[in-house]
Write a structure and sequence with these properties.
about 270 residues; alpha/beta; D-Maltodextrin-Binding Protein, domain 2; 5-stranded mixed sheet; 11 strands; disordered C terminus
Length: about 270
């Protein structure tokens, strides 16, 4: 009887170990939708993504934020992205010409406005952009004027105003619009060209000058489906959501101009 009891105990223990060592089944949760979006959209797109997951009936959304030039290059090189939202036409066109964008899926989503910011503790209003020639503005941060949309827009405006060559030695190129804001916040620059929406996000900077809409470059945020998307139906659904009333409310609340809602013409 003692031997039989031992055998039973051994069998029970073996069964328990076998059960414990059984591998867990692989997760069946769907992969999130991947959206590459311009850095200037970071805050609002996070809010839009949460609204989409919560009330839009959609699945999970993961964001990849960066300079539009960097994002476009990643997409052309085959990065696993479903939707691309650029801060300018040129970077979207680059991706389109490489065959990385679904034909006829592009929509002109948003617009914005250029402003000049200064440190909040040294607030100053400029009556004209020509006042940037004042020696007090020894360092002026802008996105890389040869690649980053906000810098491209700023260079175009300064060329129109006849100031680009005069201010050239003072220009401090940075990797994206948030870095331009940061340069003013931390004392690395005396002023910066940024989007109006980014200026609103910092309490450490103040708007010194607003580039008039009718004199500044037309700022475009096109959005489109990526050809390599592994979730094309969900991507199309999210792109439609970006054009819907809930997303529009969130965009407008953060200062963006929604195309087709009384904003600048396409």
């Amino acid at each position: 009887m003692r031997t039989r009891s031992i055998l039973v105990a051994v069998c029970v223990a073996a069964a328990a170990c076998s059960k414990a060592e059984k591998p867990e089944p692989a997760s069946t949760a769907p992969s999130p939708l991947v959206v590459s979006a311009a850095m200037s959209l970071r805050q609002v797109m996070v809010d839009v993504g949460k609204a989409y997951e919560r009330g839009g009936g959609g699945g999970r959304v993961a964001f990849n934020f960066g300079g539009s030039n960097t994002l476009a290059r990643q997409i052309v090189e085959g990065a696993p992205v479903d939707v691309f939202v650029s801060a300018d036409e040129a970077q979207m066109r680059l991706a389109e010409q490489a065959g990385a964008i679904v034909p006829d899926s592009r929509v002109d989503l948003l617009s914005n406005q250029l402003v000049v910011i200064v440190p909040a503790d040294r607030q100053r209003r400029l009556a004209s952009v020509n006042e940037l020639t004042d020696p007090a503005f020894a360092r002026i941060a802008i996105g890389d004027p040869d690649a980053v949309p906000v810098g491209v827009y700023a260079k175009r405006y300064l060329q129109w105003a006849g100031l680009w060559d005069r201010l050239g030695p003072r220009i401090v190129p940075v990797v994206n619009v948030r870095a331009a804001v940061g340069a003013v916040e931390n004392g690395g620059a005396d002023a910066a060209f940024v989007y109006r929406t980014d200026a609103r996000l910092s309490s450490h900077v103040a708007v010194a000058f607003e580039v008039p809409i009718d004199k500044g470059p037309v700022i475009e945020y096109p959005a489109a489906l990526v050809s390599a998307s592994k979730e094309p139906a969900e991507a199309r659904r999210f792109l439609a959501y970006l054009q819907g009333p809930e997303a529009r409310r969130l965009f407008e609340a953060q200062g963006f101009v929604v195309r087709g809602a009384g904003g600048p013409p396409s």
